[in-house]
Design brief:
Blueprint lengths: L11 H11 L4 E5 L5 H13 L5 E5 L2 H15 L3 E4 L2 H18 L3 E5 L15 H7 L5 H5 L5 E4 L6 H13 L5 E5 L2 H5 L20 H13 L3 E5 L8 H12 L3 E2 L24 H4 L2 E5 L16 E5 L17 E3 L3 H10 L6 H31 L8 H12 L5 E5 L4 H8 L7 E3 L7 H12 L4 E6 H6 L2 H10 L5 E6 L4 H10 L4 H5 L23 E5 L2 H16 L4 E6 L3
Parallel strand pairs: 1-2, 1-3, 3-4, 4-6, 5-6, 7-8, 7-9, 9-10, 10-11, 12-13, 12-14, 14-15, 15-17, 16-17
Length: about 575
């Protein structure tokens, strides 16, 4: 921290903006609250005087603000600023903040409290804090369970460095949101101009050769090893490093249903699908690469395989119950560790490698044939109403081929279909929304904000769509010129709820009478119509023949700068 001369009128709002500028935040994602007038005044002054500051996004819902910061952070991998309103705004956005924690996205979230309730010197914060907005212990107490770190800035003079500390903690592994309560009185207090030092990227940790060499020897001796990964692709360079490692050792890679991003090309001959089940008894070595929860139930351990965990922070502090059955840990930077292991792929037993490569070639060919067969059957269906979801995913894949597109997925019962038939093959080309449903549109908007000209597609179920703050999301899309293609897999039912009811009570009263509660969505209007007041492109599709042309028109509209919503009535 260095002393500088404060400018006339400098206060805590200036201190906060200066701090976010110093930590390298490109954006302040704000869902407005009455405490942020000092920040708005600072931004207005900086805009007037041509001074640097993060770009401010005025958003009309907390989930949209946090979700967009999440999407932007998935691509940029750097902490951004999020401003919410008091404890109620924090509570409204808490699901999305928790989603950012699960997704491993760094951000600094702030909201406010009063410390004087009008009884102290200085400007009156307003009676609403005394009557309605205050919460026992302050909002930083509320934020503790769903953030990496949560505290209060107690002085305008420490505020800039507190923001720096929050950003540094958010950025370090495991990355995630940090929360800072900034009381309104602090924002209004005169600031002496002491600024925060610019944020420095985290240093990297590396597994030593003494740790890596024995693991390389385990791989060399293994007859039937397998890699299981959930989030290798989330690390900078992790996708490419995993491909190089798998190719060097000729090891198949499984992306289980719990995978939250693209980690390995689904078109690659070494991609071994999403089912870890066949490997539980067959594998003699399982390499868990950035894999927080590979086994379910957790007590389901491999019958004979040794387990090596490759993860910078293998024991996730926010996971309540986590079982890895590890025999060895390599806890350095994942991409670096994989590169070290790839270099050690020497003196291999070529006969053993040939055997497992032949087996994987057979698995891969069988999967290719199964995908092709499923798509052929989907195309052959001649229904008068409804489209097979396999055909929706396959058509999207064909239309996105060569377009460098990104898919954000908030489907539930169709998520396996989406992953299997989209067959994404590039880094940062697929993200699955984490935490509770209702964030997908916002996350996709944030991804688009970071991705520039790359087309961004959101695949979403009708149930998840209704959880989203649709109107505020569409407002953000239009206001900030962030066009998306939104494809709704609409089966007119909360199917996951219905499946559990049938699973738990197969011969129950509901099965006998047909009274399935908590599931019916037929009463909803056509979902694409919500976009019409915003002048967006809308389509409703209920036949296979109409699907391809509708998606083509929608993608054309997106390329021309407007969000397009295609509501596809699917058969299941």
């Amino acid at each position: 921290m260095t002393d500088t001369t404060s400018s006339p009128g400098a206060d805590g709002g200036d201190a906060l903006v200066t701090a976010f500028n110093a930590v390298g935040a490109d954006y302040l994602f704000c869902s407005s609250g009455s405490e942020w007038a000092p920040v708005w005044e600072s931004l207005a002054r900086r805009h007037r005087d041509g001074l640097p500051c993060p770009r401010y996004l005025d958003l009309t819902h907390e989930t949209v603000a946090v979700g967009m910061a999440t999407g932007y952070g998935l691509v940029s991998r750097r902490p951004q600023g999020v401003l919410l309103h008091a404890a109620p705004g924090l509570l409204q956005g808490s699901m999305a903040v928790h989603g950012a924690l699960l997704a491993g996205v760094p951000m600094v979230v702030s909201s406010s409290e009063s410390t004087t309730y009008g009884d102290g010197p200085g400007q009156d914060p307003g009676g609403q804090w005394y009557r309605n907005l205050s919460i026992v212990g302050g909002p930083h107490g509320v934020a503790t369970p769903f953030t990496k770190w949560s505290t209060e800035a107690a002085s305008v003079h420490t505020l800039p460095t507190m923001v720096t500390r929050a950003a540094e903690l958010a950025w370090r592994a495991p990355a995630g949101p940090a929360y800072l309560n900034v009381p309104l009185e602090i924002l209004l207090e005169e600031w002496d101009g002491r600024e925060a030092k610019p944020l420095v990227p985290p240093g990297s940790t590396h597994s030593s050769p003494e740790e890596v060499d024995p693991v390389a020897q385990l791989i060399r001796e293994a007859r039937n090893p397998v890699v299981v990964t959930e989030t290798a692709g989330r690390e900078a360079g992790g996708f490419e490093a995993l491909v190089a490692f798998a190719e060097a050792w000729n090891i198949p890679v499984v992306e289980p249903d719990s995978a939250v991003c693209g980690n390995f090309p689904r078109t690659h001959p070494l991609h071994a699908g999403s089912d870890i089940g066949p490997w539980m008894d067959e594998a003699d070595l399982i390499l868990l690469v950035n894999c927080r929860a590979p086994f379910y139930p957790p007590s389901r351990r491999p019958s004979k395989a040794q387990v090596v965990v490759i993860d910078e922070v293998p024991q996730r502090p926010h996971v309540v119950y986590q079982v890895l059955f590890a025999d060895r840990y390599l806890e350095g930077n994942v991409a670096n560790t994989l590169r070290q292991l790839a270099k050690r792929a020497k003196d291999l037993d070529e006969a053993a490698v040939a055997v497992r490569r032949t087996a994987q070639d057979e698995r891969h060919a069988a999967e290719q044939a199964a995908v092709a067969d499923a798509e052929a059957r989907a195309r052959a269906q001649q229904r008068t109403e409804g489209v097979d979801p396999v055909l929706v995913a396959a058509t999207l894949r064909e239309l996105l081929d060569g377009a460098d597109g990104i898919v954000v997925d908030e489907t539930i019962t169709h998520s396996r279909v989406v992953k299997r038939h989209l067959r994404t093959a590039d880094p940062d080309s697929y993200f699955y929304v984490q935490g509770g449903l209702g964030q997908g549109i916002a996350v996709a908007l944030g991804v688009k904000l970071a991705a520039g000209e790359r087309p961004v597609v959101l695949t979403i179920g009708d149930g998840a769509f209704t959880y989203n703050p649709v109107v505020p999301s569409y407002d953000a899309s239009k206001a900030y010129e962030l066009p998306l293609l939104i494809v709704v897999f609409n089966n007119r039912v909360y199917k996951s709820m219905n499946l559990n009811h049938r699973r738990f009570y197969p011969d129950g009263a509901a099965a006998e009478t047909g009274e399935w509660l908590g599931t019916d969505l037929h009463r909803l209007p056509r979902l694409a119509q919500f976009a019409e007041p915003f002048g967006m492109h809308t389509e409703t599709v209920d036949t296979s023949q109409a699907l391809g042309p509708a998606l083509e028109r929608a993608l054309k509209a997106v390329a021309e700068g407007t969000t397009a919503v295609v509501d596809v009535l699917v058969t299941r």
